[in-house]
Amino acid sequence: MQNITIFLFTLAALCLYCESKYFESRCDLVEELRKQEFPEDKMRDWVCLIEKQSERKTHKIGSGKDGSKDYGLFQINDKYWCSNTGIPGRDCNVTCVDLLSDDITKAATCAKLIFERHNFLACENVGAESMSALISDSQPAYYKSHQNVYPTLKSELGNFEPRNLKDTTGPGEKGRPYHMSQDRANDVAESEGEYGMNIAASDDIAMNRSIPDTRLDECKYWHYPEELPSTSVIIVFHNEGFSVLMRTVHSVIDRSPPNILHEIVLVDDFSDKENLKSNLDNYIKRWKGKVRLIRNAQREGLIRTRSRGAQEATGDVIVFLDAHCEVNLNWLPPLLAPIYRDYRIMTVPVIDGVDHRTFEYRPVYQHGTNYRGIFEWGMLYKENEVPEREASLHKHPSEPYKSPTHAGGLFAINRRYFLEIGAYDPGLLVWGGENFELSFKIWQCGGSIEWVPCSRVGHVYRAFMPYSFGNLAKNRKGSLITINYKRVIETWFDEEHKEFFYTREPMARFLDMGDISEQVALRDRLKCKPFSWFMENVAYDVYDKFPKLPKNIHWGMVKNKATGVCLDTMGKAAPAYIGTSTCHGAGNSQLFRLNEAGQLGVGERCVEADVNNVKQAFCRLGTVDGPWSFDEGHSHLIHRLHGYCLTLQPHSKQLGLAPCDPNNTYQQWTIMHKKPNW
Ligand SMILES: [Mn+2]
After folding, report:
1. Separation of CA 205 and ligand 1 centre (Å)
2. Key word Magnesium present in the record (predicted)?
3. How far does residue 232's CA lie from ligand 1's centre (Å)?
4. Element containing residue 669 per DSSP (H, E)
5. Is there a cis peptide before residue 575, judged by omega within 30 degrees of 0?
6. Structure pTM?
7. Up-side HSE of residue 259: CA atoms within 13 Å toward CB?
8. What distances in angstroms separate CA 243 from CA 207, 275, 326, one per listed residue?
9. Centroid of ligand 1 to alpha carbon of 74 (angstroms)
10. How far away, in angstroms, is 546 Cα from ligand 1 center?
C-alpha cells in the first residue's frame, strides 16, 4: 500500500474529452476535499450516479501506467464503485486508495467530486489499474464488473457472427459421417483399441473441416459487448490422438474473435506417444506463440493438470476444453458475456456429439430443448429439462439459464476468481467429482453457473477410457472416484444430505478421504451458504427426479443358502437379468440395498421380478419405494405384490419368484456386509 493519506482519491490527470476544470496538483484536491463534508445519504447519491453512468458508458480497454490492461468501473462491494488510472491526456485518471477504510465517506466524497467535475460520460476511455494491492477485503476491486450490460437481440446479424463461410467438400465436411472403406478395417480396429476412437478416420478429415450450425436460429442475431475479456483456452491432454487434438486447436483459432482469444494453453499430462513430442512442438509454431505448450514432469491427472493450466494462463477468462472437441460457430462471445457482466458467473457451452467412429457432428439434445446439470445421491451426473421455475425467467429460449452443476469438461470462468476460490480441491484424485466440487463451491459461495444455448461445442464421446491412471491410483484402496465424492460431500453437504449419499453408497463410509480441513477452512473463510440453501434455491429439481432417500434396512451381499452364491449384476447394462456368482464382498456388482420403503437397489438400478425372471432396470425417476421386504425369521426376500419369494431355480440356476416354502433353502438369503480390509 503506497501513499495512504487521509484522502482517498488522487487525481493525477484528466481526460482529454472532459470539459470541466481539473486539479492542477494533488494539493488542490486535498484542499477541496477538506472543505467538504458529505453525509452518508449523499454517498448513496454518488453510488447511484456512478451506476447510472456505468450503464451508459462504453468501457474500453485502457493501458494503465503500470502496464496493466484493466479497464472500466469496478464494483467494490454492493455499494461502491471505483475507477482509476489511464493514459494521461486521454483517459480519466483516478486513483482509488482504500474505499474500505474508516474514511469511506471521504472516498465517496472524492469520487463524487471527480465524477462530477470530469463528466465521465464524455470520456473516451475509463482506465483503471489493478487494485489487488490496495483492497484487501473479500470484495476486491480488480474484478471488472459491467452490471446490467446484457447482450441484445436485434433484427440484423450479430456483431460477432461469421460472414462468408466457405463451402467445402471432403471427408467429414459439414460434419457428415465419414465411412472408411472395408480395406481399412484393420486401421479402424487398431485406432479404436488404442485411443477409444477412430483416429484413422480423424487423420483423413481436414483439420479445419466445416461442421453444421446446431444453434437455434435466434442465436445469430444476438449482439454482444465489443470489449469482452481476453481469454485463454486451456486444453489438457494425455496421449490424445494427434489429429483430434489439433482439430480442437484449429477450431478454436478459426471460430474465435482473434482479439479476444488471447492464447491457447496446451497442457500435456505426461504423454508418452511419440507424435506428441517434437512433432507437436513443431506443428504449433504456425500460430506464432498464440498456442503454448507446457508439459507435466510426471503424471498429475486431469484435475491437477487443469489447475496448473489456470495458473499458467494469462488471459482474464479461462475456458477449459477437452482435447477432443470442435467448437462451433461464434461459440466464444456468448460464453464470455455473462462473465463480463459478473465475474462470479461460470458459463457452460451446450455439448454436441462427435461420433467416435465416423466423426459425424450432430446435436445431442432435441432442437430447442434446454437441459441443465443435476445429480443423484450416488453423485452420478444427470441432466434434467430446465424446470419451469427457471425457464419462466427468460424471454428467449436462446438465453443463458441457471444450472446447478455441469458435466465437467467444458466451461468458462474468470481466471482470478477460479484461483481465488481455490481452483479444484488439490486433494481430488485424477478424475471425477471435480465438477461437483466446483459447482457447489461456486453456488454456495456467492457465484452462479449458467448454461449458454448459443455456445455449442462438439465433443467426441469415447468408446472407453483408453489409458490407465498409472501410478496415480497406487496405494489407494477402494474406488478413486468414490473417494473424491466423499471429499466433496463431506466439505459441502450438510448432515441430512450426507446421509443420502451414504445410503446410496454405503461402502463410502469406510473410505479414507484424506484431510479436508483446508477445504472446510476455505468454505468458512468465504462465508459460504449451507447446502440446504443450494437445494432450495438452485437444485430444487433434483428432488423431482431423486427424492430424499429412505434409510437402508439391509445392505451388502445377498447370499443364497443352498448354493452359497450371491446376486450379481454381472456387469451388464440395464435393463438386464440379474445373475449369481461367487460372493466376493467387494461391493459394486454385488452390493444390494433394501430400504425402508421396499426398494431393492443396486447402484442406480432397482430389482424387478416376476415368476420367470429377476431384472435390473433404472429405478423409476421420482420414486424411492419398491415391493420388497425381508422376512428375517425365514430368510425370505418377499415380493409383496405377488406374495412370492425370491428363488434360485435348482436346475436352471435362474432367478425367479415362487410360492414361499419355509423348507426350501433355495429361497433363503442372507444380506450381509463386512468392513472391507482397506
Ligand atoms: Mn472428453
Report:
1. 19
2. no
3. 19
4. strand 669-672
5. yes
6. 0.79
7. 5
8. 7, 10, 12
9. 36
10. 26
Q: Please report, to the nearest 10 degrees, the dihedral formed by the alpha carbons of residues 275, 279, 280, 282 taken in order.
A: 180
Q: How far is the CA of 409 from the centre of ligand 1 (A)?
A: 6
Give the DSSP letter of residue 447. Answer: -
CA distance 375 to 378: 8
Distance of CA 638 from the midpoint of ligand 1 (Å): 43
Cα(83) to centroid(ligand 1), Å: 41
Return d(Cα 469, Cα 471) in angstroms, integer: 6
Cα of 350 vs centre of ligand 1, distance in Å, is 14
* 321 CA from centroid of ligand 1 (Å): 8
Q: How far is the CA of 325 from the centre of ligand 1 (A)?
A: 8
* Grid cell digits, residue 678: 482397506
Distance CA 647, CA 28 (A): 95
Phi/psi at 32 (5° precision): -60, -45
Q: How far apart are CA 298 and CA 438, in angstroms?
A: 25
Closest among 58, 51, 102, 53 to 79, alpha carbons compared: 51
Q: State in Å: Cα 545 to ligand 1 middle.
A: 26
DSSP lists the bridge partners of residue 381 as: 375
Mean pLDDT of 425-431: 88
Rounded to the nearest whole angstrom, what is the distance from the C-alpha of residue 399 to the centroid of ligand 1? 25
How far is 489 from 377, CA to CA, in rounded Å? 10
What spacing in Å lies between the alpha carbon of 379 and ligand 1's midpoint?
Answer: 19
Q: What spacing in Å lies between the alpha carbon of 324 and ligand 1's midpoint?
A: 6
**Nearest-angstrom CA–CA distance, 453 and 455:** 5
Predicted local confidence at residue 475, as pLDDT:
54
Residue indicated by cell numbers 488471459: 315
113-169 per-position pLDDT tens digit: 444 444 333 233 332 322 222 222 333 456 767 878 999 999 999 999 999 888 889
The owner of cell 440453501 is: 533
- Read off the pLDDT band of 469 (50, 70, 90): low
Give the number of residues written for the chain.
678
Residue 265 near residue 233, CB atoms below 8 Å: yes
Q: How far does residue 361's CA lie from ligand 1's centre (Å)? A: 15
d(CA 559, CA 579): 12
- The grid cell for 314 is 494469462
Contact in structure between 649 and 565 (CB atoms under 8 Å): no
411 C-alpha to ligand 1 centroid (Å): 12
DSSP state of 216: -
Q: Which of 108, 164, 96 is nearest to 133 (CA)?
A: 96
